[in-house]
């Protein structure tokens, strides 16, 4: 569990925003909660409740204005990134914290927000398979992998990669033994019922259906990023 009493507690900040994906937040948070001598800050502009994509209310515990300098910055993904991509104050907060953080991390489309804040230029990074093309629009070298580590940038793929990212970060911070202990305590030993959790392994018919369903959102985001980068 989190030890909040240590004067030298690692400051780990998770940035919350309306309509974030719940699993991309909670899966990593679960891993973070096992880290020794770490304090997790749930950050937002205000302390008002925030609704996830699925409607569950989340409660920030620290405002942007009162955030300490973070050792780890983490940004989850979700439908709500559209509005945040054009939210100057939000992106400025990410940029300010990211410049000095020991590790800058994200999962799923949270990497688009890091890129929008200028924190992924010159780094290799990943995101959800459906958003790799969008991430590349920022000039980022994209990699279709579960977790990509490039120096102090750690980015994860789709939402379930949040656990993998959390464990990779734990290994960086405290060593592989601690990360393996956390993995075992969580009994993270996935055996999915279907071989199709990525665009490379999915049934072609399933892939086509999912791509068609997501095309309007993809196009909306493409236009937003075009405005941002001036393409």
CATH architecture verdict: 3-Layer(aba) Sandwich
Number of strand segments: 11
- Poorly predicted ranges: 1-6
Average pLDDT works out at 95
- Largest sheet: spatial strand order: 5-2-1-6-7-11-10
Using the coordinates shown, work out and report the CATH topology. Answer: Rossmann fold
Q: What proportion of the residues is helical, as a percent range?
A: 25-40%
Our estimate of the beta-strand percent is: 15-25%
Total tally of structural domains? 1
Q: What is the CATH superfamily classification?
A: Class I glutamine amidotransferase (GATase) domain
- What is the C-alpha radius of gyration, as a whole number of Å? 17 Å
Shape: globular
Tally of alpha and pi helices? 8
| Sheet/helix structural class | alpha/beta
CATH class membership = Alpha Beta
- Name the helix and strand elements from N-terminus to C-terminus, one letter apiece: EHEEEEEHHEHEHEEEHHH
Distance between the termini: 46 Å
Largest sheet: 7 strands, mixed
Domain DJ-1/PfpI: 23-170
Organism: Aliterella atlantica CENA595
Protein name: Thiamine biosynthesis protein ThiJ
GO biological process, one term: regulation of DNA-templated transcription
What features would you describe in this structure?
- With 231 residues, the protein is of the alpha/beta class.
- It has a single domain (10-193), classed as Class I glutamine amidotransferase (GATase) domain (Rossmann fold), CATH 3.40.50.880.
- The chain contains 8 helices and 11 strands.
- It has a 7-stranded mixed beta sheet, sandwiched between helices. Strands 3-4 form a two-stranded antiparallel sheet. Strands 8-9 form a two-stranded parallel sheet.
- A hairpin with a 2-residue loop joins strand 10 (147-150) and strand 11 (153-156).
- Helix 1 (22-32) runs parallel beside helix 6 and helix 6 packs antiparallel against helix 7.
- The longest helix is centred in the last third of the chain and has 26 residues, at 204-229.
- Mean pLDDT is 95; it is low at 1-6.
